[in-house]
Design brief:
By secondary structure, the protein is mainly β. Among the domains are: 192 residues, Regulator of chromosome condensation 1/beta-lactamase-inhibitor protein II (Methylamine Dehydrogenase, Chain H, 7 Propeller); 104 residues, no CATH class; 101 residues, no CATH class. Helices cover 10% and strands 34% of the residues. The strands form 16 sheets. Strands 7, 8, 9, 10, 11, 14 and 15 form a 7-stranded antiparallel β-sheet that branches. Strands 25-26-27-28-29-30-31 form a 7-stranded antiparallel β-sheet.
Length: 1180
Amino acid sequence: MPVSLLWAVDVYGRVYSLSTGGQQWEQCRDAQLEFKRVTAAQQCCWGIACDHNIYLNVHASDLPIRYQEETYENHRWNPVDGFSERLLPSDRWQWSDVTGLQHQPLDSFILPSKSWEWEADWYVDENFGGEPTEKGGWTYAIDFPATYTKDKKWNSCVRRRRWIRYRRYKARDTWAKIPSEQSGLPDPFNDISCGGWEISEEPRGRLSLWAVSLQGKVWFRDGIYHHNPEGSNWEEMSVPGEVVQISCGPGDLVWAVLWEGQLIVREGIGRDCPQGTSWVVVDSPSPEVGAIHVGVGVNVVWAITKDNKVWFRRGVNSHNPCGSGWIGMVGEMIMINVGLNDQVWAIGCEDRAVYFRQGVTSSELSGKAWKVISVPRDGDRSHSSASASSLQSAGCFFSGEVRAQSVVSDVDSDTEKEKGSAEGGSDAPTEPASEAPKPRIPKVTSDSFISELVSDREPGKNTSAAPAILEEESNPAEGEVQDPPAAGIALSPSHNVDLEEAQSQQAGAGAVLDSADTCSLSSVATYTLALEEPYGADEHPLWAWVNGGGCSVDCHSQLNWFTLAQSVQSMSLSITPAQTAAWRKQIFEQLSERSKREMDNFRHYEQAIEQSVWVKKGTMQWWRDWKPHKWMDVRFALEQFSGPEGNKDGILFIYYNFNEEKKYLHAFINEVTILVPVLNDSKHTFAIYTPERTKQRWPIRLAAATELEMHDWLALLSVSCCDSRGIQGPPSKQAIWSVTCKGDIFVSEPSPGLEAMPYPTPCDQMFWRQVGGHLRVVECNSVGVVWGIGYDHTAWVYTGGYGGGFFQGLASSTDNIYTQTDVKSIYIYENQRWNPVTGYTNRGLPTDRYMWSDASGLHECTKTNTKPPSPHWTWVSEWAVDYSVSGGTDREGWQYAADFPASYHGYKTLKDFVRRRRWARKCKLTTTGPWQEVPPIPLSDVTILPCTAQSSVEVVPLWAISNKGDVLCRLGVTTLTPAGSSWLHVGTDQPFKSISIGAANQVWAIARDGSAFYRGSVSPQSPAGDCWFHIPSPSKQKLKQVSVGRTSVYTVDENGNLWYRQGVTPSYPQGSSWEHISNNVRKVSVGPLDQVWIIADKVQGSHSLSCGTVCHRLGVQPMEPKGQSWDYGIGGGWDHITVRGNSMEPPRIRLPSLTDPSAPAPRSPLSARNMEVNGNAVRC
């Protein structure tokens, strides 16, 4: 579970945050002012301070917020001066944007606010399309505008070059004031809500910010995204009445509360219109009592009425944002908030505690019960009481005995509240059993705020929070000592109030503020006057606001918010090490004597049972692999036996009927090389491979009746295979990791002969076992550091466990197993053809593809018949048009082409007779495995330094590419802390997609435009290097992946060609040229010994061509690093492999000499010949 924050504001205006992995409220020390309300997303938090200005707190991250400013310098050629600044009157500006329509001189660029700073001065971009230009960065064309080239031609009459300057957002983890607009706002804000990050993934980090002013107007902040966290400007939204509070969900839900108690819903919110189009009025849950507060999520709406009752709105979704009806819930709250995953937080009416709604799932959105969050604040054990003279009271904080009693009393009171709730049949918070009079808690929430503002309009009513504040402070809690009256009531130095208000308070020290002067513009959720420490030793904090918009919690999260750690004084047993050693020796001697006494008398008996046999039987279906191919009902049996020495083995039997004759198949357990779950829409299928069946590409396919039965058999067979081969526990540091195309993770323990020459172990004899989890990419090295990346670009680090998923009991470790989630998008295409009568329509030609199809057009895929990849996946969104398609789209998502299939583009021409658009829908998988998330930056590629097992590297270099193309270097990665500590951003001028680091710290990378780069001067002293060197790509090819070993550099291009970089030496690490090795290659992995493994397509088998096959390059030697031929292993259906952890040196074999009679003969020449034949059987 990633660490995220729950934000809250107490009644004194202080902002606190509670981490999902923490156990105490952390005060935001930077806030030198009081806040009324906060609203959060995962990357930032917005707040309204008591000065009615809006502040932004962007969380610190290893990835900086950088914005690239650019402008173009334009020149025209003339016969006298050549290229010069003298342009024609009809030309563009000398300094302009890329279109030439906007005048942009270098001195016209200014920083948006004080929160930004320039990184460096302006410089010329000397890259054009991924290739370096001539010195000066000029590109040439015939005229403005036209197609520019980096080469100057005889007819080049104009030229331009791009100037770049980066600015960096520096206000991280601090409250930065949002700059006011020049025109100014008509009145201050009193409510704010952010959301909308799920409406569109582009631009990155996009947010919707809604605000409500004191006059009841609604405002929308435009232009908020990752590179512009502050936004651009405020836009007023028309509303049908005066609004008092607003709530925005992560998606397209926006609800607001009117003064009259009704609610309004925003409609028309979408990707192209995030602010929506119109409002719809929804009646209050109770006709007699109006609503005062509303909170919305993705598919839920919660509301609170003026009598503090809680209501849940059913039937809410993107297609019906208004819902269908209200349901009354148990509990009395003053405010409510809905966060990520539709989780709910609220503040109790009586005790002002923060409550969490338990049991909220996708199938039960209303949850089950309220549970109070009972954790201390970070100042509970360090602050003194109100008076400095109360030494005895302050000293109780440091007494272990008193601390233990205090904590136990808190737990007891919580237990009594839970008992009372259970007996009463209600989960609402109840008052603790105490006879002491309860101090009056001031009403400083949304409904009291309404009453205060109403009192401003009605002179007859004069209600104020100030007398209530003084009344509460005049009744200190037990154990507190009050300040002497002479001290008066002083302003806290950490508080911030308006200047006029402060002056009036100083003029009348100790006097009560007049309500008519302070109510309308003072904080409605804070105390403006307070003692130095408002809470006593055992007093719970009083909360005024809570927000979970950035708090990632779900039904699987393990939170430590609900139990207080008891600080019980430890007891010393006064046991010396000498006594412990003596006891241990005495116990060992007694056990030895007992064993000798009981066993010696029976040594002359023969062993009664020499071996044990265990059989498990069941019924399954078997896919008959000869004509007619069909599923047949069979009896399946696993017979296991163990010898007297403890070694285990077994045999699989499949009994079937053929032509009314009983027959069977069998396979020895020690010959099984892999067990693979197979995707099937209607059956729970898995495949069993042996070396012979791996060569034929034809495994034994079995189908169980239920998913549970299939998982039971897979776990049992996997344990049996591991026992027969003597494999136990987690994978070794030398293990080879691989991933299938459906995300299953497999590991294989390499043998010393895997890279031996001239007779290596065939890779079809490798045994693969499954590891729990779901990933797209895995990378490792030989010191045990293993990282993975999911389909949703989340980074995961291996914890050292094994099992997880459907492996339970002995097949899985008891610790280091965590919940893992993954999200991926399913795509289908809507195809249309143009005809002269109706234009584009879904009626195509008889030879056309399906009007709803997959990317190839060969399979029909509609919205209704398209299902998630397997039953483990569940839909988490609706179908939506995908605009992030290669080639671009128009406003409706369409791509145009001359015919199917062809090259698509995002604009229509006269020759375009067909068009298509891609629809996407997200699905989610929840499983378990030995993986922990590495927040917060999503990644697309990762690489770890390959080194020998005896390496003394303390800090392991690890590089990565973010899903936006940024290059990152991970700091603090060691064998004890494989997750590292922080990210170091490495500057680039364009986005990258692949990266690899070699054994000598040589870093190679591939840009998204297919060009290669080498990072210079990378060393342990300079882990990020100093500059990038452009490496020309192979002729007319765009590279997509790179892998670097000890001395070898291999790349794969977008057409599946494998290339080797020649001429790489320590003095010239960039190499000299590319040499083609093979085709039909999907991925390549080069190990620390320069061993080469690939994932290949179109590998010839006994029945058909196989895609996604693991292949091993044979004959790789120091004098012949390119190798000689290919040997294939498991496949197809594989998508990724890494051998960068296998640094096991092969045994040195001396070939026997024909003239030396003393030389020993080879042990098995027959097996050697078979291995050589197999090694040269396949060439990709």
